[in-house]
Amino acid sequence: MHEQHKRSTVTSLFTVFLFSLLAQSDDGSVSSSKTPITGQLLQEANREPLPYAMVALYNEQDSNLVNSALSSDQGWFRMEAAPGKYYAEINFIGYEDRTIPSIEVQKNLDSLQLGQVFLKSDAIALEEVTVTAEKSQMQLKLDRRVFNVGEDLSNSGSNAADILDRVPSVTVDPEGNVSLRGSQGVRILVNGKPSGLLSSGETEALLRMQGDIIESVEIITNPSARYEAEGEAGIINLILKKNKEKGFNGSFGLTAGRPDNYGASYSLNLRRSDFNFFSNFGMDYRKTPGGGWSEQRFFTGGALSTFYRSETEQTRGGVGGYLQLGTDWNIDQGLLLTGALLFRKGQDKNDAFVTYEDFNPEGATISFTERDVAESENEYNLEGSLNLKKTFDDPDHTWTTTITYIVDDDTELADYVQKTDTLGALILQRSSNTEDELNFLLQSDYIKPINENGRLEAGMRIALRKVNNDFMVEESDDGTFEALDNFDDQLEYLEDIYAAYFMIGDEFGKIGLQAGLRAEYSDISATLQKINSSNEQNYLSFFPSASVSYKFSGENQLQLSYSRRLSRPYFRSLLPFSNYNDPRNNNIGNPNLRPEFTHSLETGYLNYFTKGSYLVSVYYRHTDGVIEEIILPAEDGTAIEYPVNLSTRNAYGVEMNFSYDLTDQWDMNTDLNFFRSMIDGMFEGVQYTNDTYAMLGRLTTNYDIGQVAEIQASFNYLAPQRTTQGRRLSSYNFDLAASMDVLKNRGTLTLSARDIFNTRVRRSIIDQIDYRAESSFQWRRRQGIVLSFNYRINQEKSEK
Known about the structure:
Strand content: over 45%
Number of domains: 3
CATH class of the largest domain: Mainly Beta
Oligomer: single chain
Distance between the termini: 24 Å
């Protein structure tokens, strides 16, 4: 009986939610004159009003949905219907369904009063609806996996970079660089498209983006032709919260932690008749220490010529916030318009203190240098988007068009004061780096069912991007600042991408087939205006994709997929200047970089069993034109990090995701990724090769204490691996978290301790004939403790 009740509740809720968007007018066979139908919903237990419950009116003859309404704060509801015979269904999560039969609307009736309607609480129904959603924590679809990140306790009060670092297949190194299965050639999207939340560059933007607004993360390791071809390792799609299931709902959050981490946020949703309004807001103050050390040795003819050690202490962070406002408008039956506006602003103050101790070949100190860096960064971003979706008679037959416009402005100013004990005068320097960016996106997608299980898809995409970057480093000469050679120019970067795709898929019994082809024309130019140097790239590329799946009993399935992808160089990789904090170790861009092209093949098997599930994936990637960051030592005892296109990379591996309920209160989840990567290439007559075996591992366990508390422990490990010039050493971290429900389960307190032993450090060794270096560095220290509070309004807590 409970199983039937569960199906009835879920089916009714889904039906009402979907078709209430589409119901705009009565069937043409009835009169156009409508009569108001009113009533009041009350809770049977205490006779209090029941707000924001769904009331649906159906035609008695054919059970077609005629109209629907949400109850007000005081439980009142009102809807209209033409003369005829109807029945009403009332659904609200946590309450038994209620049906009102035999509702007759007569002609010339001013109004029809249904009076007070009582609903009985149903805890069993609520529990079963929650359990139904349990398996959706990890779903294997034709082209993606979905992870509900809200279930991880340690995500509370986190930024987007921290959340991604806890998603299977994804790693975020101590400097904030995101990798998917060991490759940084990954494309990050928000709600399936580029977003102003990431316009400032993925690393800094993810550190700034509050995790409270993220509902789930999609990992698309082998994207189909539907998706843009960017990202040779795949796509990470962040899905933001926007709840439309009930009338008014939302949540408020507060965060406090050390190092300085204070924030407030909300996510709200209001649905009224044909409109759904949503808003997200967040503001925070973060100040995080970081730093590290390095030792660098330069050799001439095999003999040590220069040797120094540097140490860096820094703090980074400041105040930032965002506000998103949007609405869904059901214009007509099957026609939905969504508009959203996002504003984001940040102001950071970053300080660093760098010391250099120089030694002679015998190891004796010859000089000591101190360098103070004071940097300010101001950024604002504005994004507007419109999305029009037409749903035809078949709900799977849709046409969607999206327009997005993004404006971003980022200005970095820095002052440098350097003092060497063997020199009397101070060296005074300053730098400015201004980046203005415009993005325009037009995308249209059409989906047409061709039989019961098959469908045809086609679409187009235009993405236009313009970046103006002015940079300059000046040094004082007797009180007058003059620009340094090679550090004064203006870059204009233009990137226009025109794409179209076609896909077809169908199911033949237990076998599913899908194939597609995407064409992209890229028109890209990077111009250094002061030295009049330009690099233009124009190319037409085709990206086929295909997948085959086989469904076993239940939801278990096997999948084989192929796709061709590319990774265009990020415009900062083309820029000759990044920052001047450490003049002995500069990151220099390469304006002649070309894109990487990758062939990707993958097979995966997902199996659900009584107490858990497991997913096993085997993958292979072949990449041409690999972009690799190499270290080039100079004769003056400095080094530059320079991106170049090498020849090829072959990578293959096995990934395993496993979840298991040890008891009713205790569960565990693990992710293991074993891979081999082989790189072969040459630059300026030097051979750069690499053959490495490595693994990534993550283990998380949760234990429920009664019905209101939970504790969680997690361990992450990144094995050492070889690079083209040396090796990167292992790193690991251990996190703890606990939560407790308060205020009648409307609020949740969460306390989390991250990187308890402060072991999340990037350690590397470079070992070349003329240059050897060893370093240990944290861009931002992850170790800390965070207390967060989340309060829910008309929302049930997300369950595991």
